[in-house]
Here is the input.
Amino acid sequence: MHIHRRTLLKWLGMAVPVSFLPKAWADRTGDIRHILPTVTDTTFAISVSVAQPTNKLHLSIDGKSVSGRKMDSKGRFWSFYADRLEAAKTYQLQLSDQQGSLGEAWPLRTFPARNSEPTTFKLLAFTCAGGADGLGMPSVQFFKPHTFRQNLFDAGLQEKPDAAIAIGDHIYYDLRGKEHPSIGRNSKWLKYLSSWHFSLRYGSFNRSAPIIGTSNEDILVRIGDEQIANLYGTRFKSTPIYFVSDDHDYFENDDASSELVTFPPDNFSRMAHKTIADLYYPPLPDALRPEWNRAFGTLTYGRLFEASIYDCAGYLTVGDNAKLIPEAAEDWLISRINNSPAKHYAMVPSHPVGWTAGKWREWYPDVVAPEGFSGVVTNEVLSEVQGQLTTTASKYFWQKGWWDQHQRLLEALVKFRHGSRMIFSGDIHAQGVVDIKQSGDLRLERPVKSFLVGPVSTSDATWPSSARGITADEPGWLTNDEVLATREVNGFTIFEFEGTQALAKLFDCGGYDRSKGEDGRVQSVHEVLI
Here is the structure.
């Protein structure tokens, strides 16, 4: 029997296992660890990591090649930037290295031109997605497993948002000025056990050494791979996502005590924050200054929607002129409030406006203290303090300048912004909506709606009621109307903007009580008109 040469080659090709094929011939989708993009009307900024180091990585955008910028010492982390793109256009993207294409091509769309009038915009918002995969013990869990969080992400993406905002706490690895974390500062055995666990699993930082090119880089990558790359993967590759930092992204909780004040961040904390951001997610567009591109930026969707996004941790100051954001950032924010042409405008601070959990770095003086106590209180996380939220006691090292700045920003929003305006934020592990009617002496004739958009990874020990002994509540110096009760649930919010109309959908994904077996899928949805 005569067998044609082409037929023989075809049979042989079908019989050879993929593992024996040259790498360039095999399916290389698994070589891509994560893809996270941001866009404007004319630019793409994309962060990528690959499983194996490479000397070069290219991104083809509709056939035009853009060279990647290597962000680490080994060649696993790459950043791409492309400008002069057409507005409101879907491009086809493809990664490749010296051996050929990596994975499949995918679409990414630029935003409408800034002076255009798009008719609709849908935005996904969430907070606090970080934390080690299922970290905990049989009796208590600190962070949800990745499967729970990924089900939550997938539910949000099923709503087909045009963009997403991730509000702070992408990393939980609080060092307290040391070389590795320790959980359970009030329990010697738990402190020792957790220190041993973290140093064995990840390693111990050398705080006096650089990060890139030293053993510090390997430790940081182990942390970032687990908490960001492994979590997000490539599911957001066609959905622009805007990351803003908060306290834990500087590898610290916002603590103040006679032993340690964690903010403003020290040099190592700033270096760790910058390196994680550079490796794993793209910068914010329209940054005030190049060095502030992880802290202050804008999401602009034509003349339909604008969000001013800002970090309330990394640049805070204490003393006579204390502020949670620098004066230049405050001036920028008030200018955007006053001059934005968007039909809908949002302030997006990393720390919430309208709620308190008695934390140190808050706009508000409220602290957890025993009833009737009027002295100074240091309210640390997991300290088992008993009491209630009060402004009668004094919060250790709280700065009144933070409140004064809160008042200036809120007054600007009320006085200068006559159209649709709102605030949404994260940090406090809860979900809810309030109308702010009065703030100190400032009366709001037209209330401002403020949203807690919902956390992603919170579990048993990291709800405010467990970590601080109270649930998040109304600050003593504010008067709010409760629109949607504040609940300790994981979830996300979808904001829908259409002409002069706006609707928020708050998705409850559960997760407070592990005995219910909730897996991150949606349990209920609550709609709020804005």
User: Anything to note?
Assistant: The chain has two domains: 18-110, 112-272+284-529. The chain has eight helices and 25 strands. The radius of gyration is 24 Å. Residues 18-110 form a domain with the Immunoglobulin-like fold (CATH 2.60.40.10).
